[in-house]
Amino acid sequence: MLLRVFTESQQGATYHQQLAVARTVEELGFDAFFRSDHYLRMGDGDPGPGPTDTLVTLAGLARETSSIRLGSLVASSTFRLPGPLAIVVAQIDAMSAGRVELGLGTGWFDDEHRAYGIPFPPLRERFDRLEEQLEIVTGLWTTPIGDRFSFAGQHYQLEDSPALPKPVQQPHPPLIIGGHGASRTPALAARFASEFNLPFPPVDACREAVARVRQACEKAERDPTSLRTSVALVVCCGSDEAEFARRADAIGRAPDELRENGAAGLPAEVVETLLGYAEAGAETVYLQVLDLDDLEHLRLLAAEVMPEVHGR
Question: Which of 145, 206, 235, 297 is the most buried (most CB within 10 A)?
Answer without folding.
Answer: 235
